[in-house]
Amino acid sequence: MKAFWTIGLLILSNSFMVIAWYGHLKFAEWKWFNKLGLIAIVLISWGIALFEYLFQVPANRIGFSGNGGPFSLIQLKVIQEVITLVVFALFTLVVFKTETFRLNHVISFIFLILAVYFMFKK
């Protein structure tokens, strides 16, 4: 159950992270947003990133084996990185619609899945 909660919280966390880091590139299409200066955009991104931390910190605390969770610190990091890339790929394809998913992307995802497999192999 802790593994489920950890992965679910990491997905939520990374969803907010991707919006904070890259959402402003899409939000620039809105006239009012385009008038904002860089400092205002950074502050808005920080506000969104706060939600990233509200999910990331509990995910790591729940999932870390030192706190009774199922994952080592290295395993948590690899899981988080894979989730980050999957969430980013989906965000890019759905929100921007200018990116294309090519064979080299599929191959790189296969290698990421293999990285997770080898991370958990004893």
TrEMBL record:
<keyword id="KW-0812">Transmembrane</keyword>
<feature type="transmembrane region" description="Helical">
    <location>
        <begin position="102"/>
        <end position="120"/>
    </location>
</feature>
<keyword id="KW-0472">Membrane</keyword>
<dbReference type="InterPro" id="IPR007437">
    <property type="entry name" value="DUF486"/>
</dbReference>
<dbReference type="Pfam" id="PF04342">
    <property type="entry name" value="DMT_6"/>
</dbReference>
<feature type="transmembrane region" description="Helical">
    <location>
        <begin position="36"/>
        <end position="55"/>
    </location>
</feature>
<keyword id="KW-1133">Transmembrane helix</keyword>
<feature type="transmembrane region" description="Helical">
    <location>
        <begin position="76"/>
        <end position="96"/>
    </location>
</feature>
<protein>
    <recommendedName>
        <fullName>DMT family protein</fullName>
    </recommendedName>
</protein>
